[in-house]
C-alpha cells in the first residue's frame, strides 16, 4: 500500500481481532501436516516468527479409468428404447432404478435421464457417442445412489444440453445443472464430453466430483464445475467457459471437505467470476492450468487519510468490493507443488483468506489487483513466479521467501506486509487483514532470486524485515512519496545480496543491527544506466542495470568489508567513493523524511524520526539536527529506537500529537 496509512475504527478493529482469532484457532486445530510453513499467533514475537506446518494432507485417490464391456441394459436414445434390466422409459424420461452398467448411444433431441436407485447402489452410465438434449430440465439427474460413474470410451464424443428453464424443480430448487448429482459423481475414460448448460451450472455434485483422464468441454450460464464436498481432477483435459465461477467446491461447514485438487492434465478456465474457488483448500500437484477472469470489480484503492491534525481513528477507507473475479481463490489455503500455471484476472490472481504456499511450479500472473494475496501467510519455497502486472505484487501479514525465481511488477507496492484494508476477501465484501499480534508482521527472505519493480514501495513492511540469504534487486519508485525500502521497526540485513535504487524522498537503508555491511551512494541517474561497485583493487563487488530514474543506490553482500574504500561507476565513469566505516555507511544527506511524513510539521522543524548519534553515516544518511518534531511512526533509528516527542504505543501510533497528521498502515 502507499505511505498513506489506513486506520480502522476502534470497534471494527476489536471485532476483526476476535473473528480472526477464532478462525485461526479453527484452522490450526484442524489442518494436518505437510512440508509447508505458516505463522501462528502463539510463541511469535516481533523478532522471531514461529512457523508450523499447515498444508492439509489431502491426496487424490488413485482412481483409474475403467473400460466396461458387459452391460445390464442398452438404451437407444434415437428411438427412446431400452433393452435389459433396471431401466424404464416414461414420458421422455429414462429412469435408472438399480445398480448396474447402462450403455447409451444415439441422439435424443428431447429427453432426460434420472437415476433413482438406493443409497447403496453404484451406477455406471456409458456414453458412446451419445447426445442428450432436454427441453424442460437437466439432461442427467442423479437423485439417489451411492456413486454414479459416467464412462466415456476412447475415441467417442458425447453431448449434453439442458433446458434454459426447468419445470420440475423440487423444494431445494434442484436439479440446477445440465448434469446434476446428489451422490458422488465420477467421470472417467479418455473420450470427450461436451456440456452446454443453458440454465445454470454445467456439472454439479452435492458430494464429491472426480474427473479422471477425460476431456470435458463446458459452456455454462453460471458455474462450470461444482462439487460441494470436493472437486478432484486427475490427468483431465478440461475447458470451462462460465458466466459464473469456473470450478468450485462449496462445503464451508466441514473443514476436511470443500477442496479442489488438481493432479496433472490441462485445465483451461474462462470465467466472469472466480476461476477456481474452494471454501477450504486448493492443492495443485501438477498440470497445465490457464485461467482468465473478466468480471468487473472495484479496485479503485481510494483512501481517505484525513486532514493534518486529525486523529488516526477517524481515518477510514472508501475501498469497496462489489464482486469477485479472482484466478485461484480459497477460504483457507492454496498449495502449489508443481505444474505450469498462467492466470490473467481483473481481481487477485491468487488469493487465500489464510495461507498461500508455493513449493514448485512455473507460475505466470497478470492481475488487476494483487498478484498473490493471503490474509495471514505467503510462503514461497521454490519454483518460478513471474508477476508481470499487479497493483500490489505479494501481500500478506507474514511473507517468507525461501527459494525460487521471483519477479514482481507492481503499480503500487511490490511486496507488502499487512497494508491494512484490502478489497479482496472471498467475494463477500471488503477484507481486513488480521490484527492478531501486529508485532508478527514480517518479511523474511532466506533464499531465492527476487526482482521487484514497483511504482510504490519496493519492499514494504508494516512491521519488520530481514534478509538472511538470496539475491534481491529492487527497482524502486521514482516518486518521493514512496520508498524502495519501507519498514516500521527494523530491517536486519544478515546475508545474501541486496541492490536497491530509486527516489530518495522516503529513503530507508538496512538497520544498524544488521549482521552484514551495506553501503549507500547518493547518485542521480536514468533508466538504462550500468552501475558497478568496485573495491580499491578494482574488483567488481556488485553491478546492476537500472530500469528507471533514481537518486540513490544501496548495496549489501558478503564481500563488503569495513575499512575498505569502494567506488561507484556509472556507465564506466567513477561517480564517487566511500570508506566503509560502519555496518551501514551512507553519503545520502538529503534523502527524504526518514521513511515517512508522519507527525506533521510542528514548530521548530523536523525531529521525531531521526537517529540519535549525530553523524552522517546513519542508515538513512540524514544528519541529526534535532529541532522540533516530525513524529514518524516508524523507527527512524533503523535499529528500532524511536526519538519521537510524543507518546507512542506498541504499534507505533502517535497519540495526541496535535502538530500533525498521524497515520498507521501503509
Uncertain residue ranges:
1-56, 302-322, 420-431, 590-666
Record field, number of beta strands:
56
Arrangement of strands in the largest sheet: 5-6-8-10-13-16-19-21-23-25-28-31-34-37-42-45
Average pLDDT number: 80
- Percent of residues in beta strands: 35-45%
Number of helices: 1
Rg over CA atoms, rounded to whole Å, is: 29 Å
Q: Specify the helix fraction band.
A: under 10%
What is the end-to-end distance? 5 Å
Shape: elongated
**Mind summarizing the main beta sheet?**
16 strands, mixed
Counting helices, strands and paired strands, the structural category is: mainly beta
Describe the fold and architecture:
Helix content is 3%, strand content 43%. The chain is built from 1 helix and 56 strands. The strands form 6 sheets. A 16-stranded mixed β-sheet has the order 5-6-8-10-13-16-19-21-23-25-28-31-34-37-42-45, with no helix packed on it.
Summarize the structure.
With 666 residues, the chain is mainly β. The chain contains one helix and 56 strands.
Task: Identify the notable features of this structure and list them briefly.
1 helix; 666 residues; mainly beta; eight-stranded parallel barrel; disordered N terminus
Amino acid at each position: 500500500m502507499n505511505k498513506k496509512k489506513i486506520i480502522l475504527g476502534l470497534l471494527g478493529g476489536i471485532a476483526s481481532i476476535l473473528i480472526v482469532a477464532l478462525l485461526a484457532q479453527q484452522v490450526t486445530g484442524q489442518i494436518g501436516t505437510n512440508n509447508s510453513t505458516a505463522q501462528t499467533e502463539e510463541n511469535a514475537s516481533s523478532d522471531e516468527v514461529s512457523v508450523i506446518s499447515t498444508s492439509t494432507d489431502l491426496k487424490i485417490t488413485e482412481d483409474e479409468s475403467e473400460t466396461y464391456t458387459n452391460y445390464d441394459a442398452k438404451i437407444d436414445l434415437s428411438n427412446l428404447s431400452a433393452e435389459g434390466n433396471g431401466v424404464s422409459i416414461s414420458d421422455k424420461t429414462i429412469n435408472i432404478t438399480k445398480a448396474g452398467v447402462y450403455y447409451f448411444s444415439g441422439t435424443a433431441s428431447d429427453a432426460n435421464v434420472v437415476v433413482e436407485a438406493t443409497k447403496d447402489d453404484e451406477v455406471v452410465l456409458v456414453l458412446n457417442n451419445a447426445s442428450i438434449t432436454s427441453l424442460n430440465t437437466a439432461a442427467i439427474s442423479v437423485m439417489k445412489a451411492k456413486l454414479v460413474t459416467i464412462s466415456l470410451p476412447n475415441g467417442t464424443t458425447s453431448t449434453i444440453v439442458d433446458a434454459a428453464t426447468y419445470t420440475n424443480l423440487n423444494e431445494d430448487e434442484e436439479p440446477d445443472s445440465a448434469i446434476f448429482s446428489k451422490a458422488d459423481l465420477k467421470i472417467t475414460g479418455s473420450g470427450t464430453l461436451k456440456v452446454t448448460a443453458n440454465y445454470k451450472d454445467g456439472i454439479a455434485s452435492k458430494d464429491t466430483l472426480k474427473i479422471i483422464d477425460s476431456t470435458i468441454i463446458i459452456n455454462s450460464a453460471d458455474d462450470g464445475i461444482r462439487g460441494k464436498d470436493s472437486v478432484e481432477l486427475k490427468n483431465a483435459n478440461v475447458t470451462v467457459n462460465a458466466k459464473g465461477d469456473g470450478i468450485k467446491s462449496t462445503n464451508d461447514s466441514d473443514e476436511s471437505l470443500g477442496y479442489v485438487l488438481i493432479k496433472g492434465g490441462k485445465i483451461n478456465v474462462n470465467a466472469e467470476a472466480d476461476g477456481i474457488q474452494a471454501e477450504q483448500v486448493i492443492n495443485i500437484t501438477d498440470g497445465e492450468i490457464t485461467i482468465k477472469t473478466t468480471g468487473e470489480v472495484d479496485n479503485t484503492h481510494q483512501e481517505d487519510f484525513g486532514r493534518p491534525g486529525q486523529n488516526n481513528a477517524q481515518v477510514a477507507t472508501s475501498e469497496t468490493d462489489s464482486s469477485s473475479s479472482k484466478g485461484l481463490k480459497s477460504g483457507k489455503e492454496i498449495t502449489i507443488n508443481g505444474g505450469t500455471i498462467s492466470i490473467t484476472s481483473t481481481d487477485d490472481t491468487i488469493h487465500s483468506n489464510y495461507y498461500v504456499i508455493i513449493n514448485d511450479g512455473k507460475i505466470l500472473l497478470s492481475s488487476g489487483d494483487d498478484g498473490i494475496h493471503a490474509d495471514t501467510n505467503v510462503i514461497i519455497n521454490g519454483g518460478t513466479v513471474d508477476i508481470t502486472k499487479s497493483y500490489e505484487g505479494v501481500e500478506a501479514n507474514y511473507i517468507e521467501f525461501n527459494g525460487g525465481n521471483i519477479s514482481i511488477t507492481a503499480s503500487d507496492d511490490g511486496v507488502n506486509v499487512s497494508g491494512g484494508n484490502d478489497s479482496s476477501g472471498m467475494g463477500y465484501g471488503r477484507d481486513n487483514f488480521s490484527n492478531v499480534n501486529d508485532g508478527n508482521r514480517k518479511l523474511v527472505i532466506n533464499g531465492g532470486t527476487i526482482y521487484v519493480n514497483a511504482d510504490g514501495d519496493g519492499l514494504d513492511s508494516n512491521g519488520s524485515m530481514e534478509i538472511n540469504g538470496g539475491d534481491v534487486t529492487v527497482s524502486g519508485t521514482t516518486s518521493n512519496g514512496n520508498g524502495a525500502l519501507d519498514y516500521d521497526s527494523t530491517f536486519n540485513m544478515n546475508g545474501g545480496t541486496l541492490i536497491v535504487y530509486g527516489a530518495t524522498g522516503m529513503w530507508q537503508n538496512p538497520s544498524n543491527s544488521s549482521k552484514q555491511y551495506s553501503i549507500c551512494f547518493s547518485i542521480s541517474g536514468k533508466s538504462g544506466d550500468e552501475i558497478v561497485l568496485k573495491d580499491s583493487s578494482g574488483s567488481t563487488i556488485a553491478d546492476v542495470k537500472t530500469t528507471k530514474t533514481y537518486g540513490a543506490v544501496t548495496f549489501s553482500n558478503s564481500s563488503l568489508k569495513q575499512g575498505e574504500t569502494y567506488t561507484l561507476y556509472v556507465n564506466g565513469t567513477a561517480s564517487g567513493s566511500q570508506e566503509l566505516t560502519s555496518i551501514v555507511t551512507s553519503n545520502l544527506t538529503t534523502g527524504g523524511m526518514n521513511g515517512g511524513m508522519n507527525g506533521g510539521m510542528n514548530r521548530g522543524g523536523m525531529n521525531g524520526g531521526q537517529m540519535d548519534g549525530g553523524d552522517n553515516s546513519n542508515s538513512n544518511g540524514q544528519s541529526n539536527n534535532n529541532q522540533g518534531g516530525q513524529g514518524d511512526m516508524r523507527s527512524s533509528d533503523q535499529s528500532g529506537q524511536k526519538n519521537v516527542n510524543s507518546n507512542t504505543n506498541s504499534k507505533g501510533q502517535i497519540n495526541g500529537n496535535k502538530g500533525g497528521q498521524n497515520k498507521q498502515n501503509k
